[in-house]
Structures are given as C-alpha cells and as structure tokens.
Design a protein that fits this description.
This protein is of the alpha/beta class. It has 9 helices and 8 strands. It has 2 domains: 41 residues; 182 residues, Alpha-Beta Barrel (TIM Barrel), CATH 3.20.20.370. Helix 1 packs antiparallel against helix 2. The structure holds zinc ion (ZN).
C-alpha cells in the first residue's frame, strides 16, 4: 500500500517528467495540483484508496448483500433497529463508537447477544484525528477495543474508518492493530436524506452481489425505512447475510 515516501517519489518523478516540456514554475505548480488532487481522492475515497485496503464489497456471484450500521449505539434508535432486524431474522454489522459504547453497554451486549457483528469505529469519531500521528489513532482503536472487550468478552476484528477517511497514518495504525478495515459499496446518505422513499430507492437501485451497505443506527430516518428496505432488498431476490458468514 502507498506510504508517505511513495508520494514524495511519485511527486519527484512527475516533476522531472513535466520539466522536460514545461518551464520550472509551471512544472512545480502542475506537480502540486496533480499530486494534491490525487492524494485528496485517495484520502476521501475508502473504495479506491491506495493507502489502505478496505473490504468494500465481497467478491461473489451470489445475490447476497450486507447491512452495516455506524456511529451507535444510540439509545433512541439502536433498539428500534435491533427489533426490526430480529423480526426479519437479519444479521448485520454494527461499527460502534467507543464513547457511545461506554454510555450504553447494555445496547452493545444486546447487539452481540442477538448475533450481530461488532466492529470498531474509533473512540471519539473526531475527523481531526485522521490528520494526527498514527499513535493518536492507535490509542483511539485500542481504547475502543478495550471498551468493547470489557462489555462483550471478545475483541473486534473489523474496523471502519470514520467518514471513510484513510491516509498513511491511519493505515499504519490499523495494520499495527491487526484489524481488517471495512468500507462500503453503497453509501446510503441516510445522514442527510430527508425523503424515506428516495432513500430506499437510492440504496435498492445500486444493489449488486456482495454489496456492503452503509447505514447509521443513530438516525431516525434509518429506523423508519429499515423494514421497507429489507423487504425491497429481498423482493429483488437478494439475501441479507452477515459479514461473519463470509
Ligand atoms: Zn461514522
């Protein structure tokens, strides 16, 4: 995977190449623009990131998809979501924030006891941490793993980077933790969506075998659409399975 030293070398190579047909100032400017655009694309695209390999879709020809819920547990909506999953006999993955897990340990226990997979979504979910040294991210990961271990008795194996942001520091921290990074194939935008019907359609139109769907269990709209979403997915011939089953 791409490290800081590779970025410097690529920048240097690009500059040397551009200098052969541009004057030095233009070569420097063009190198910087290309390099920064390319780095930004890799930082903010969990699917295409060259910094860290994340599982965003399971390679399969079978019509199976995976539900994942981030940012909980929430005392308001996680219980509603768990009730709907239970009623439909569907297992999902919950990427919990350490600070929330600490406040609602009973909800974490319930997620675990009802057969769902629990992953680490950092302790504070602070986007600024992504741009701090890897030791800060390592501490966030460790703290959350310890909180989740104390509650459930098992250490999470999956990690989801907050906001899908990845960079060499995050990659180093995750590699050191021995965890597997999990992204998504379908971003639902349930954090900003106001229209339940549009939200269900946006997700169901993008389904393909192996898709991992990103949802949030701290959003009212997600709890409102979940039953219909499950029915729509199943009516399209897809089975919803757990990441633990692959
Ligand atoms: Zn998040």
């Amino acid at each position: 995977m791409l490290k800081n030293i590779h970025i410097v070398l690529i920048g240097l190579a690009l500059f040397i190449l551009l200098q052969t047909f541009l004057d030095t100032v233009f070569a420097v400017l063009t190198t910087l623009v290309v390099l920064f655009s390319w780095i930004a694309f890799n930082i903010f695209s969990v699917k295409h990131s060259l910094f860290l390999k994340s599982i965003c879709r399971i390679r399969t020809k079978e019509k199976v998809v995976f539900l994942s819920f981030d940012d909980g547990p929430s005392d308001q909506f996680t219980p509603v979501i768990l009730d709907i999953l239970k009623r439909n006999n569907v297992k999902a993955s919950f990427f919990c924030i350490g600070q929330h897990a600490e406040v609602y340990p009973d909800l974490v226990r319930r997620i675990s006891s009802e057969g769902h997979r629990i992953g680490n979504h950092t302790n504070s979910h602070n986007w600024k941490n992504a741009f701090k040294p890897s030791s800060i991210i390592e501490a966030e990961i460790d703290r959350t793993n310890n909180i989740l271990f104390d509650i459930t008795g098992s250490k999470p194996e999956l990690f989801r980077p907050p906001f899908g942001i990845t960079n060499p520091s995050i990659a180093k921290a995750i590699k050191g933790s021995g965890m597997q990074s999990v992204g998504w194939d379908i971003r639902s935008f349930d954090t900003i969506s106001k229209d339940p019907q549009k939200l269900v359609r946006r997700i169901s139109d993008k389904l393909r075998p192996g898709s991992i769907i990103l949802l949030h269990d701290n959003r009212e709209i997600t709890s409102r659409i979940l039953n219909e979403l499950i029915e729509t997915i199943q009516n399209k011939g897809y089975k919803i399975v757990s990441l633990a089953d692959v």
